[in-house]
Amino acid sequence: DRVVLVNPHEEAVASFFDGHVTVVDAAARLADPLPDGLNDPLFLSPDAGAVELAEHVCDAYGRGDTDYFEKVRHSGSEVEITPSDADASDRDVVIVDDIVATGSTMSEAVSHLDSDGARRVFAACVHPLLVRNARTKLERAGIERIVGTDTVERDVSVVSVAPAVAAAVETVTQ
């Protein structure tokens, strides 16, 4: 009779359920496992649709800038990314997204960041699907660390969404 959705890719999915639906945002929790001393951090989302997630992680981290890439998806695994206006030179960059499936979008983003002179690149995602060779693809692209929540259990699932889900359930029951 109650559903709690954690950062659904499309909020419209909530309309598929009968009964009370609560959508919770666990993105800010992704700031916790990031290194404390990021150099002039830049939080980037791979497209305009995820910029709010990047803003939440940036706010929780406590400092940095946010921006996003322009993305055109040609197929399930082929994407074209246009760099953001933000200067990544000698900065630590955190690419934030809701889902990392194949790693194609983030890998493409990293290649632009490398050519822009980014110092280090991290990946943060709410749902780390990491299908097929996604993990290897991201590591080969130059991502230093991938952090995700435990909505999908992977070895990168270092952030628990339990507090966010518990708060939502508690609010509904009151």
Explain how this protein is built.
The chain is α/β, with parallel strands linked by helices. It has one domain (27-159): Rossmann fold, CATH 3.40.50.2020. Helix content is 25%, strand content 31%. The protein contains four helices and ten strands; from the N terminus they run E-E-E-H-E-E-E-E-H-E-H-E-E-H. It has helices at residues 51-61, 104-115, 134-141, 162-173; strands at residues 2-6, 20-24, 42-45, 65-68, 70-73, 79-82, 92-100, 120-128, 143-149, 157-159. The strands form three sheets. Strands 4-3-7-8-9-10 form a six-stranded parallel beta sheet, sandwiched between helices. Strands 1-2 form a two-stranded parallel sheet. Strand 7, helix 2 (104-115) and strand 8 form a beta-alpha-beta unit. Helix 2 (104-115) packs parallel to helix 3 (134-141). The longest helix has 12 residues, at 104-115.
Which terms would index this structure?
25% helix; globular; 6-stranded parallel beta sheet; Rossmann fold; alpha/beta; 10 strands; 174 residues
- The average pLDDT score comes to 92
In CATH, the architecture is 3-Layer(aba) Sandwich
Any idea what the radius of gyration is?
16 Å
How many strand segments? 10
What coarse outline follows from CA principal-axis ratios?
globular
* Proportion of beta-strand residues: 25-35%
> Could you say which structural class the secondary elements and strand pairing correspond to?
alpha/beta
**Most strands sheet:** 6 strands, parallel
Q: How many domains comprise the coordinates?
A: 1
How far apart the termini lie comes to 15 Å
By CATH, the topology is Rossmann fold
Low-confidence stretches: none
Q: What's the helix-strand series? A: EEEHEEEEHEHEEH
CATH class: Alpha Beta
What is the number of helices?
A: 4
**Strand numbers in spatial order across the main sheet:** 4-3-7-8-9-10
